[in-house]
Amino acid sequence: MIKAILVFNNHGKPRLSKFYQYFPEDMQQQIIKETFQLVSKRDDNVCNFLEGGSLIGGSDYKLIYRHYATLYFVFCVDSSESELGILDLIQVFVETLDKCFENVCELDLIFHVDKVHYILNELVMGGMVLETNMTEILTRIEDQNKLEKQEAGIIAAPARAVSAVKNMNIPQQIKDIKLPDLPQAIKDLKF
């Protein structure tokens, strides 16, 4: 089972943290700090698995990570998870982010945190892997984007109506109405 998913930059600043086991806030911060210290010290040519830190379960848990550009993607898992399966899951997560944000970068994780969490929830929920097929995940994300656009259209309808009425320039239209000359109209009524 996946216990936590952490994404932090090369300086240890967390960009995404999702815990599937309860830890108090201060303990979560310590786990992120300890995990960064463990992972960042490792050379690029060593394997991407190591024992969990003392705060997240010690030898009963594994940290499985990938380092892409300026970001570390770390999955904290128990012994029932396959290391290679989790590495593949990290790859699917990063490739999905890359397709959604067109060359994902650290700023995308900061400014689109809701979308990143939505993508993550398509992959993992409650510590269990739900989906690993990137095409299926992208289809769900596209469905969500369409739904958001439809809702934005419905929500924006009253504002568009007010804007349309303002653009009509009603006072000028009233001035432009050509009314017949009243004395002439009265003369025309008499036979």
Architecture overview:
The chain is of the alpha+beta class and about 190 residues long. About 50% of the residues lie in helices and about 20% in strands. The protein contains 7 helices and 7 strands, in the order ββαβββαααββααα. The strands form 2 sheets. A 5-stranded antiparallel beta sheet has the order 2-1-5-4-3, sandwiched between helices. The mean pLDDT is about 85.
Provide the fold topology.
Elements: E1 2-9, E2 14-19, H1 25-40, E3 49-51, E4 61-68, E5 71-78, H2 83-101, H3 106-111, H4 113-123, E6 124-125, E7 128-129, H5 134-167, H6 170-175, H7 182-189
Antiparallel strand pairs: 1-2, 1-5, 3-4, 4-5, 6-7
Helix pairs in contact: 2-4, 2-5
Count of individual helical segments: 7
Helix content: 40-55%
Q: Which secondary-structure class do the elements indicate?
A: alpha+beta
Distance linking N and C termini? 98 Å
What is the element string, with H for helices and E for strands? EEHEEEHHHEEHHH
The number of distinct β-strands equals: 7
> Mean pLDDT across all residues, rounded?
86
CA gyration radius, whole angstroms: 29 Å
Strand content: 15-25%
Task: Considering the chains and any ligands shown, give keywords for the structure.
191 residues; alpha+beta; two-stranded antiparallel sheet; 7 strands; 19% strand
In a nutshell, what does this entry contain?
With 191 residues, the protein is of the alpha+beta class. It has helices at residues 25-40, 83-101, 106-111, 113-123, 134-167, 170-175, 182-189, and strands at 2-9, 14-19, 49-51, 61-68, 71-78, 124-125, 128-129. The strands form two sheets. A five-stranded antiparallel sheet has the order 2-1-5-4-3, sandwiched between helices. Strands 6-7 form a two-stranded antiparallel ribbon.
